């Protein structure tokens, strides 16, 4: 199975990300995943991360339904956006010159 990102368009609902799923001996199926505009406006997700979060969501939906979801359109929830952000936010660097704890402590 091949999952291919096709592109996006801005709509009244938000940004719609289109993917095509191809399987051997089957016609390609197009899936549309929507991220509400509010998620971008509130800086909870960046435009650069949007195709990746949509790809994760689509792969999850494909796996949950033996690669044949009933729906072909999905809207990402606030919770999914927040979970993605938490999982993909880089950890802050530790201060490399922090004093080491003494052995007496």
Q: Which terms would index this structure?
A:
elongated, 28% strand, four-stranded mixed beta sheet
> How many strands?
4
Low-confidence segments, ≥5 residues, pLDDT <50?
none
Strand content: 25-35%
Principal-axes geometry comes out as elongated
Radius of gyration from CA coordinates: 19 Å
Percent helix range:
25-40%
Ends: how far apart? 57 Å
Distinct helical segment count = 3
Summarize model confidence as the mean pLDDT: 90
- What count of domains describes the coordinates? 1
- How are strands sequenced across the largest beta sheet? 1-2-3-4
Series of H and E elements? EEEHHEH
Helix/strand class? alpha+beta
Question: Can you give a write-up of this model?
Answer:
β1 and β2 form a beta hairpin. Helix content is 30%, strand content 28%. The protein starts with a strand and ends in a 17-residue tail after the last helix. The radius of gyration is 19 Å and the shape is elongated. It has helices at 37-41, 50-64, 78-88, and strands at 2-10, 14-22, 29-36, 73-75. It has three helices and four strands. It is an alpha+beta fold and 105 residues long. The chain has a four-stranded mixed beta sheet. It has one domain (2-88).
